[in-house]
């Protein structure tokens, strides 16, 4: 794999990990991951194209969906180069700066996705609980402000990670990562000094972003459910709740894998290392892949336009 710098004053290199003990079949294991990438990239690109072409979709809900699709594309392109290099070509050495950049973008898009889902829950809350004020509350200017605020929040919080990592010495002969991509928690484990500041800051912003966002999303759905149950006609209640199904599923496929990865990381010490790798891959792969699928199936306008684009079906 080449030589590694052991001088802490030099910029270290890191070694990416595929599936230990399964190196001979790793190129084949990449095939399903490649399918996930293809579905994610093509699916989210089609969502953006359809919303642009379909004027009936020029509404706040679908503007947020476009922001979610752009973010999911960012997640896919952040991990694709190193996963492809590690599993297909066994090119596993990555420089410190490249690892730092990948770590920054992976966490940036993950944190941003949480904020986008929160903004989408606010959109559903206003649409159902205050429908008469929907157009005045969610103006184009306010949507842009919410989108930029979400991105800026993530950028400012994640920017501290590279700054903290640059002050750490890495003095191992081989800095072997646990995955085929770079994560903050993975990198600080390899430092040969106290990393309590990094750990405490990482935990703090997890609580500040994922914890706060998920709590606010839960509150918004409690208010939505209360408003829906006040509707007299059962058919209208079902119709109203149906407008939230896509977003609710998007929330589940984002937070459930994330919680599962955290539980496996904390309590799954006896599990094979390949299980940890697989769970982390699912956390990064599943939301970008399933979000466009869910919205294409559940949204009539997107489904109709998609059939027109792919099969020239006329309605």
TrEMBL record:
InterPro entries recorded: GPCR_Rhodpsn, GPCR_Rhodpsn_7TM, Olfact_rcpt, OR51/52/56-like
Topology class, membrane: Multi-pass membrane protein
Listed PROSITE patterns: G_PROTEIN_RECEP_F1_1 (PS00237), G_PROTEIN_RECEP_F1_2 (PS50262)
Pfam families on file: 7tm_4 (PF13853)
Domain G-protein coupled receptors family 1 profile: 43-295
Biological-process GO terms, alphabetical: cellular response to lipid
Locations listed in the record: Cell membrane; Membrane
Gene3D superfamilies (UniProt xref): Rhodopsin 7-helix transmembrane proteins (1.20.1070.10)
GO-annotated cellular components: plasma membrane
Family (UniProt): Belongs to the G-protein coupled receptor 1 family.
Name of the protein this chain belongs to: Olfactory receptor
Organism: Chinchilla lanigera
């Amino acid at each position: 794999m080449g030589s590694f710098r052991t001088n802490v004053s030099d910029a270290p290199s890191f070694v990416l990990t595929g599936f230990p003990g399964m190196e001979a079949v790793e190129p084949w294991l990449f095939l399903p991951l490649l399918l996930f990438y293809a579905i994610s990239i093509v699916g989210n690109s089609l969502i953006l194209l359809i919303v642009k072409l379909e004027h009936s979709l020029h509404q706040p809900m679908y503007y947020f969906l476009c922001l979610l699709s752009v973010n999911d594309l960012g997640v896919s392109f952040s991990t694709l180069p190193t996963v492809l290099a590690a599993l297909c070509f066994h090119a596993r050495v990555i420089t410190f700066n490249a690892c730092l950049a990948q770590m920054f973008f992976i966490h940036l898009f993950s944190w941003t996705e949480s904020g986008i889902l929160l903004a989408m829950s606010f959109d559903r809350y206003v649409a159902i609980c205050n429908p008469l004020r929907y157009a005045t509350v969610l103006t184009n200017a306010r949507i842009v402000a919410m989108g930029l605020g979400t991105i800026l929040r993530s950028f400012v919080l994640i920017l501290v990670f590279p700054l903290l990592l640059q002050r750490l010495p890495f003095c191992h002969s081989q800095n072997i990562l646990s995955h085929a991509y770079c994560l903050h928690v993975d990198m600080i484990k390899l430092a040969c000094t106290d990393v309590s500041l990094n750990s405490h800051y990482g935990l703090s912003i997890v609580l500040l972003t994922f914890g706060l966002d998920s709590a606010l999303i839960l509150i918004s759905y409690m208010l939505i459910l209360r408003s829906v149950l006040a509707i007299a006609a059962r058919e209208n209640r079902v119709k109203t709740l149906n407008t939230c199904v896509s977003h609710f599923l998007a929330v589940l496929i984002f937070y459930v894998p994330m919680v599962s990865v955290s539980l496996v990381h904390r309590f799954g010490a006896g599990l094979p290392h390949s299980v940890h790798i697989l769970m982390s891959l699912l956390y990064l792969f599943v939301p970008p892949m399933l979000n466009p699928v869910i919205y294409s199936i559940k949204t009539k306008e997107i489904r109709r336009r998609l059939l027109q684009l792919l099969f020239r079906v006329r309605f």
